[in-house]
Specification:
Layout (H helix, E strand, L loop, with lengths): L3 E6 L2 E6 L4 H12 L7 H12 L4 H11 L3 H10 L11 E6 L2 H5 L2 H12 L12 E6 L11 E3 L2 E3 L9 H7 L1
Parallel strand pairs: 3-4
Antiparallel strand pairs: 1-2, 3-5, 5-6
Helix pairs in contact: 1-2, 2-3, 3-4
This protein binds FE2/S2 (inorganic) cluster.
The site of FE2/S2 (inorganic) cluster has 11 residues, from helix 5.
C-alpha cells in the first residue's frame, strides 16, 4: 500500500512504484520505528539522507505522503538545514565548518575560495560529480579552527592563503 507515490512530470501527475527499491523499504522501517510522527520529520530526513546519500524529490514526496505532511513543509525543512543535501553526493566531499570558532578564524574565506575554484556553492556538486561542497556548524574540534573535513578526515588549522591543497590532493 505504501509503495506508490505520485510524481509530477510535464505530462501531469503519474504514479511511481517504488516497491523494487530497497532504499524505500529501509526508509519505511525508520519511519515506522518513529510511529510516523509528524514531529519526527528531521529524524526521518536524516535517515533518508543516510539511506539515499541525498534527499531527492521522490524521497521527499514519499516522506510527505507517509507522514501526512504537505510536501511544501517537508521541502522547506530539507532546504532550511545546511546538513541536508538535495543533490547527489560527489565521489569526494568537503565540509567547511562555519561554527563560531572557525568563522572567527576565517572559514567563510575558505568557503569562498573553494566555491570560486570549483565553481559550485555550498550544498552543490561539481558537474563531473568529483566533489560535493557542504557546510556544518561545529565538528567539536574548535581548538583546531579553522577546520574542514575532506572525505571524513578532519583537517585543522587550514591555511587561509592556500586552503585548497588538501582538496586537490583528495580528488586527484
Ligand atoms: S566551530 Fe569549527 S570545529 Fe567548532
Amino acid at each position: 500500500m505504501f509503495l506508490i507515490i505520485e510524481k509530477v512530470s510535464y505530462e501531469g501527475y503519474y504514479k511511481m512504484d517504488v516497491s523494487a527499491d530497497d532504499r524505500y523499504r529501509t526508509l519505511e522501517k525508520s519511519m515506522k520505528k518513529l510511529s510516523y510522527e509528524k514531529s519526527a520529520l528531521i529524524e526521518v530526513l536524516h535517515s533518508a539522507q543516510e539511506t539515499f546519500g541525498y534527499l531527492g524529490i521522490d524521497a521527499l514526496k514519499y516522506i510527505a505522503k507517509r507522514l501526512k505532511l504537505p510536501y511544501s513543509k517537508v521541502y522547506g525543512v530539507a532546504t532550511f538545514y545546511n546538513y541536508f543535501r538535495l543533490k547527489p553526493k560527489g565521489r569526494h566531499n568537503v565540509v567547511v565548518c562555519l561554527g563560531t570558532a572557525c568563522y572567527i578564524k576565517g572559514s567563510d574565506k575558505i568557503l569562498e575560495k573553494i566555491e570560486k575554484r570549483y565553481g559550485i556553492k555550498a550544498g552543490e556538486t561539481t558537474s563531473d560529480e568529483a566533489l560535493s561542497l557542504l557546510t556544518a556548524r561545529c565538528f567539536g574540534s574548535c581548538s583546531l579552527a579553522p577546520v574542514i573535513v575532506c572525505d571524513e578526515q578532519i583537517k585543522g588549522k587550514v591555511s587561509l592563503e592556500n586552503p585548497l591543497c588538501d582538496i586537490e590532493e583528495m580528488i586527484k
